[in-house]
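Continuing from the previous page of notes. For each protein in this section, the sequence appears first, followed by its structure tokens. Read the first protein now.
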Amino acid sequence: MKSYSSANWKGSGKEGSGTLTSKSKVLDNTSYDFRSRFEDGTFTNPEELVAAAHAGCFSMKLSFVLGAAGFTPASIDTKCTITLDNGAITSSHLEVKASVPGIDAAKFAECAADAKANCPISKLLNTDITMDAVLA
């Protein structure tokens, strides 16, 4: 499977602006700019999109790992915080709250660690990945 998105940028790095479009059109000429990335702008930015990708990928992977262990999650809520420092993504932190009927804390922690290590976005990121995972 292959997927794609595209970007169009006009102007200088600080004063310019751009748009992002994804294959699915979920992003359809969605604006991004310097202010939204480094100050207080209202558009999206690459780090926000990486955070969404990591949270979504991790949640789906955790569901698969739990399923392989014989559990079906009622819900998995994941917040991902990406840290950009001096022009580099330096960390990705996952905050996970899940409701999984019949699972104990130790088994859940094992499944969450497996998902953190093996979701495709975790494997893609060359950064420190931390996680707090709790059962709801």
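Done with the first. The second protein uses the same format. Note its length before scrolling.
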Amino acid sequence: MKDLIAAFDKLPKIVKIILALPGLDIVWALYRIVKGAVYKNFTTLIAGIVWLLAGWAILWIIDIVSLILKDSLLFAEA
């Protein structure tokens, strides 16, 4: 699983932004859930579940802005 997380971290910025679009943002929700479980980070795990449930509505905008400004996702720490 750590290899999968590393692969997503190494994606080009434009691909990360495309995956943050509505409908595709489920990828980043699952990424947060997996990363939270692997690294035993409760905050990241809960953020992934919230993103899974509400990401399609508004949270995808936060992902796009976060990726553009700092090239990483909000609430996706290890």
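What the second structure shows: Residues 2-70 form one domain. The two ends are 13 Å apart (CA to CA). We return to this in next week's lecture.
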